[in-house]
Amino acid sequence: MSEVARQFVMAGFKEPELMLVAAKRMRETVKGEVEAYTPYPVHGVDEALALPKSIIPKMVGTGALFGVCGGYTLLYWCSVIAYPINVGGRPLHSAPAFIPITFECGILLSALTAFFGVLAWMGYPRLYHPVFESPGFRRASIDRFWISIELAGDDPNKLQAELKELGAEETDFVTEQLQ
Amino acid sequence: MSAPSQIVVPRLPWEGGRKQMLAALVIGVVSLVLWFVSMRMTSTERAVYSWLWALLFWITPCLGAIGWICAFNAAKAKWIILPRRTLELIGGTVGIFAVLFVFVAMFMRDIYPWMRPEAFDEEARRLFEHRHKWMNQGMWFGRAILYFLIWIGLAERLHRWSLAQDTADLPENTAKAWTLSPAALPFLGFAISFAAFDWLMSLNVTFFSSMFGLYVIAGCAMSAMAVWILVTIAVKTPINGHHLHSMGKLMFAFNCFWAYTAFCQFMLIWIADIPDETPWHHMRIWSDWRYVGYFQIVFHFVLPFIILLSRGLKFDKRKLGFMAVWLLIAHAVDTYWIVMPQLTPDGPHFGITDLFAFLGVGGIAIGFFIFRMRGKNLVPIGDPFLPVSLEYRP
What is the pLDDT of residue A56? Predict the structure, then answer.
């Protein structure tokens, strides 16, 4: 954990459109990082925050590749090296019989990579985030569209005023609680 | 939020494609005549096999298109409405195949072994006799007529309901289509399966596979999506990137489904290894046909799979169009691989009859397709859910 407590200016909006406009404006004018929190996926957040392309597909693809190679290798090792059993006169190395398991291993590993990859990408196992300090923030999972701006030298009061002007229903200023 | 829709929906009937239509019809008719000439030069059997292959390749997208419309309607999908009219017309092209099918019916004696049991050994004759109640000329004709009635009836009914909405305020037609389509899907599926049994499986006396109908249907679904993508791009339907992305995803998914059915059919027969079932694959593996099989594994599945995984590619008209053409070529090879080994079991021998049959059926079908497109709105402007489709963004 960092030594210095991070500080955030937050703003909750009633409408997703207002939130998108404010997020875009903040990203363009403020130095700190802008983040959005919404009750449901809102179209246009990626563009408003100028998020880079997700790396999850590449992670899952890599996982699938490992699954496929690992599955085939395991089958090869089982049927050819460790337990060479003659089944109906077929060659020990019979690709058609290996493919279903190989496919399943590919699916398994890509699913696991996707599941744990997303969790890791979201920051688990860390359960605390400074934005939780704001009492109104719990409505982010009900009916309010929140953005947060990490302070990097901007004046929090000026930012809050600006966000109010952009249509924010409520604004807040929070500081990270360090243990 | 996304900007308000800037899409301009063409309100006027489409009048393009005159040159293409005439060219296709001329090529089709000339090839048909040349096919007849080449039949005299080679053999009737060879020519009719080529014709059956060409028919199979060109009819599958039409059958797939009917299936897609029914499936979309069953799901009450609204995003497909903007490009739907061309899909209806691809399905509607099935009518011309009832005419082109006459050449298979005329010469069926030359290709179907159960029509001439005297030429086979006793085991095969016993099989023919056992199946005679189902597999005889009268039943075969009757079923073929039934299949075409189902296909043409369904395609035309759905197309006309949709067409009537263009000129009159008939929102109830959408509801009617949503009711008929799910009810019709089982009949459509069975008709395609049984047509595959009658026309393709019965070329071989000893082929037993419960997967074969589904295998053909998978090819139908994939090729229909590929043709739809190409037609939508060609007639410049004002779709957005998300429409194209979804169409590309479906093409991709059903290409994987094709690979799945093809592999399952092979793997189950291979692993059971029962003498009754193996000859069909045996013929395709222990001869030069195996290279066609390898070609399919690589060019019908592995490479398209890797390429079509890309998300960006499916938003790009040119790249997705290229992949659609690629998959249609692979589909042509696949259908060739289904039909032809029965004629030349030792390996593929391309003949001039193949070319003429392919161009003959294709030219006439495409000509008929463009002929039916002309003078119609290529966007169903009367559909009550068209605005939803214009805003499509999954």
Answer: 87
CA distance B255 to A117: 28
Domain spans in chain B, listed from the N-terminal domain onward: 18-122+140-390
Chain A residue set in contact with B, beta carbons under 8 Å: 16-17, 20, 43-44, 57, 61, 88, 96-97, 99-100
Closest CA–CA distance from residue B393 to any residue of chain A (Å): 9
Beta-carbon separation of A17 and B1 below 8 A: yes
Token pair in block for residue A53: 């392309």
With CA atoms as reference, the chain B residue closest to A21 would be B1
Give Cα separations from B236 to B16, B73, B178, B324, B391 (angstroms).
11, 23, 27, 16, 17
The CA R_g of chain A, rounded to the nearest whole Å, is 25
pLDDT of residue B135 exceeding 50 = yes
Residue pair B120/B205 in contact by the 8 Å Cβ criterion: yes
CATH 3.30.70-classified regions of chain A: 7-54+129-175
User: Does the predicted interface ipTM exceed a cut of 0.95?
Assistant: no
Query: What residues of A are in contact with residue B311 (Cβ under 8 Å)?
Result: 57
Which residue of B266, B311, B393 is in closest CB contact with A96?
B266
Q: Do A99 and B267 touch (CB under 8 A)?
A: yes
Class of domain A7-54+129-175: alpha beta
pLDDT digits (tens, 9 = 90+) for B217-262: 999 999 999 999 999 999 988 898 999 999 999 999 999 999 999 9
Residue B392 or residue B155, greater confidence: B155
pLDDT for residue A157: 84
